[in-house]
Amino acid sequence: DTAVSQTPKYLVTQMGNDKSIKCEQNLGHDTMYWYKQDSKKFLKIMFSYNNKELIINETVPNRFSPKSPDKAHLNLHINSLELGDSAVYFCASSQDIGAAGELFFGEGSRLTVL
Amino acid sequence: LAKTTQPISMDSYEGQEVNITCSHNNIATNDYITWYQQFPSQGPRFIIQGYKTKVTNEVASLFIPADRKSSTLSLPRVSLSDTAVYYCLVGAAGFDSNDYKLSFGAGTTVTVRA
Q1: What is the pLDDT of residues B50-95, one digit of tens each?
Q2: What are phi and psi of A99, to 5 degrees?
Q3: Å from A44 to nearest chain B CA?
Q4: pLDDT of residue B30
Q5: Do B90 and A99 touch (CB under 8 A)?
Q6: Is the peptide bond between A8 and the residue preceding it cis, with omega within 30 degrees of 0?
Q7: What is the number of CB-based contacts under 8 A between chain A and chain B?
Q8: Cβ-based contacts of B101 with chain A (< 8 Å)
Q9: Can you tell me the distance from the alpha carbon of A71 to that of A31, in angstroms, rounded to the nearest whole number?
Q10: Which of A41, A93, A94 to mutate to test the interface with B (most CBs of B within 10 A)?
Q11: Gap between the Cα atoms of B90 and B14, Å rounded
Q12: What was the pLDDT predicted at B46?
C-alpha cells in the first residue's frame, strides 16, 4: 500500500488550460502539504493543511487553489496554466505540523506546460 | 532568506565515507535538523533527525556541534545506490509563519562511482 499517492504522475498540457492533481494519504496524518520542485531541485512549500484547514499559503499565484475534502485528501487545482508552472509537484503528509515531524512524500506529478 | 546552505554536489567512490555539511547559522532553540534523500523520479524520504551531539541509525550518522550552527550527515561505505540528492531541513514542531522552515534548499547531489 502506497502511503502517499498522487495522480497523475505525468501531465502534459497547453498554456491557458486548467488542470488538477490529486493526493491521498493512508497514514492517518493530520497535516498535508503541496511542494513545487523546479529544475534546479529547489523544493518549495506551497500550501499546508491541518485537519482540512489551510494553515500555510505561501507566495503562490491565485491560479493555484488547494482543496481538502477530508484529512486524507489534498488536491491541487491550477487555472490558466503558464510555462513557468512546469515543474514537479509533490504532495506530503506528516503527523504533526512543522519541520520537526517526519514528512512522507508522494512520488511526484511532473507537469509540463507547452 | 536562505535558511540552510549545502554544497551543490559531491563525488565519491564505492566503499568510501561521504560527509555532507549543512550550514544553518540562524538555527533557533526549538529547531531540529532533519536530512532527506531523494532518488530520481521519487519523492524525498526521511533519513535521520537530530537536535544535538550525534545520532546514528542503520543508514547514516548525524553530527551536530555544540553551537548547532552546522550539521554533518555521514554516509558510511557508500554504494552506487546511494547516488541521490540529499537535503537538510531545519525547523521546529508546530506552525511557523516563516515559510522557509518548511522549504528545502537545492540539496547536495551525491554521485557515487564504481
Answers
A1: 999 899 999 999 999 999 999 999 999 999 999 999 999 998 877 6
A2: -75, -10
A3: 5
A4: 86
A5: yes
A6: yes
A7: 83
A8: 98-99
A9: 8
A10: A41
A11: 29
A12: 95
